[in-house]
Each structure stands twice: as C-alpha cells, then as structure tokens.
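Human:
Focus on the backbone:
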Amino acid sequence: MKYVLWGIGRRGKRCLESLGIDNIVAIIDKDSSLFGIYANKIPIISLDEYQAQYYNFPIIITPRVSEDIVHELLKCQIYQFFLLSDCPPEIISRRKLCWSKVLRIDIAKEKKIIILGNTLYSFFMCDYLKKSGYRNIGILFAADAKGKFKEFFNYNYSEYNYIGDNDNADIFIRTVPEEVRFELNNNSEIWDWYDLSDFVDNYYNNNIEKYRGMYKDKRCFIIATGSSLTLEDLKLLEKNHEICISMNKILKVFDRTSWRPDYYVVSDDAMISDFYKEIVEADIETKFISDVCEIEEYKKFGNVYQYHLHVDDARKEKLKFSDDFARKAYSGATVTYICMQLAVYMGFKQIYLLGVDFDYQKGEITKHFIEDYHGKGERANKTNYKMNLLAYQSAKEYADNHNVEIYNATRGGKLEVFERVNFDDLF
C-alpha cells in the first residue's frame, strides 16, 4: 500500500525512512512556500491538491499533536487517515532495528488470523504476514471505527480482505492498546502484538539477569535531581551505607561529595549522546543505559548495561510497569519511573524517593539541585506532567499489588501519589 504523509518534520522523516520513498506518493504541508518542492523526489502538496489528485491514497498524520489536523480532515470529509502516534514504539522510534526482521512468528500457515485494530500498524502487520506466507488474514475494525473509513478501505483495498464485523478466527492479533473495544463472539486465542518488545529477542539483555532479586526484601533510595536535594542528604546516605539508585546529571555533583550511587540509570537520547563519555567513565559501580541511541561502545565497559526502553506514545490512560528489566522498562516520560522498575526487579521491598519534587507545570523545564545542571548550550527536555503522573500512579498500583512499599522522602514538592515520610527519621 502507498501513502501520503502529513508533515515532514522529525517524525515524518523517520516514517519516510521506515516506509521507504517508493511507498510515499506525496507529502502534505501547511507551508505554502514549500508547494511544488520535492523532498527525496516526493512532491510537497497542499490539502486541496491531495483532494484533487491523491484522494485514493490514505494519509499518515506524523505530528504528535494532531487534533487540529484531524479536525480539518473531517471537515473536508476525509476519513482515510492514520495517526502515526497510534503505532507502537518500534514503528516510530529512533532505533534502526527493523522489528520485521527479528519478530518471532510461531503460527501454522493454515491458521485463520484476524488482526484487531484499524490503525496503521494493523495494515503494516497484515502486509508483513502476507509477505511471510500467510494468506487467511483479515482486519477487524474497532467498534467505534467510522463507517466512511470502512467504506474507503473495503472499496479501494478489497484485496487485503479487510472486514468490518467479527468473524471467527483461530487467532486474534491485537495491534492496539487493550483499552480499544472489539466485539468478539468466540473464545479464540488473543495475542497481544501491540507491545512488540515481548516478542523481539534482540531487546533482551541476559547480562542484566544476575541482578534479578539480588536485594530481596531490602530497602533502597532512588535519588532524583530536584531542587530540594542537598549535599547533606547525600552525606547522610553515604554515612549509613544505604543502597542508592540515581540518574542523569547527578554526575555533576561528584566534585562536591564523596557519595556515589551504587547504580546509575539514564534513558534520554539527548543526554546519552551528549554525555556518553562522561557517563561510561564516571566513578559509579554499575550503569544502565537505554537503547534509544545506536551506541555500541558500551560493550567495552564491563559495568555498563544496555536495557530496552519501551517509549509508549499511544497508551494515554494507563501505563505498564515492567517486572523484567532485563527485557525492557517502560518510559513514563521520567527516568525516575525506570529506576522504580529496576528497584523492583532487584528485589527491593522498600523504595524511598528523594529529590522527586514534581513541582513543575506542563511543558516547563525542570528545576534542579545545582545551578549549573544544564550547562551553556546543553539541550534540556521539557516536562510531560500528565505522563509523569500516570507513571507514578502505575508504580503505586503495581507496588500495592506486589507487596512493595514506595515512600516519598522528598522535602516539599508536589508528589502526593506515595505516602510521605521524613527523610531524617529513616536513620
């Protein structure tokens, strides 16, 4: 199937690279000065030109914030569009790993397969299975799929055997979050392929396995870098030989204290690419670096472990919590959430948060405990308050259901998801 892209920003370029220029016939852009210009030999067009010449090709909306674009398309009675953000991370991430080359498929060719979800990913998966030799495949649209959407694909792409109503199958493959509703009338198997990281063996790092349950029933401190953290706090932790997990640019305080975290976690691609040398050479016993950057040098260092970071764009109302850090960690748009998953994996039953101020507004750059945390010219990511809150709520729910206690020992701040304790009273 060929597509028209809406937008050629960073995500649009990633999508173009993933799909290949042969599968994109045009690019829609709002900037009229770009009309008639070609990007990778692909014409940049207006929405009017799309309606006149490219109407039979579905649109992929690449920007993360897409509400206004969707409204404009519906106003023009255009229903044949997909949101790139509905795809799982493996489709839209920065990673060069091609999931279709490493995905495990263990389904007999004669089985009848129905793919759940009328998203771009469902169509990708249908194409992928057909290329893998499967023929008895259909797509079951979600219960709230618009009729015009169904009509377009049933009329223009009937060879794909898209279906709008339930049909018995041997296996249903879910390619959307669990919250999306389907009307299923039988007890067939349902395989969740939305979270592809469960099926890609390349993501698993067996070198991390030795840390599973290492600190069974013990306590640890997760040291964030909020403005409430003090050098005195670090001295107290060092004096009492507490096990600490810290993150990001905590490295910048090492010239002012002899305290060092036992474990260090970093997830952000900008921070990894900008400070990789400082991270791997830092005086820290063990470091965990996410795979959002294609850096192979970490293998030279025996105390640096790469873990798979699952960056979920589409799941907005509830986040997952990984209990197998060797396979993956869920992002939650905050490295503190990743540290919690590592702590649980290591077996800690009491987890204390320190320096997690959570006192920013939507889109603000976080404040930190040292003034030069962000040096001149350094990139600083803006916050994602909603996703962070969902992450903390998810951690609380997981902890409550698995006999794990998470406390907030931060002085002040606005994080009220976890029970508060006085840091000084813990010693």
About this structure: The first strand starts at residue 3 and ends at 6. The mean pLDDT is 86. DSSP finds eleven helices and 21 strands in the chain.
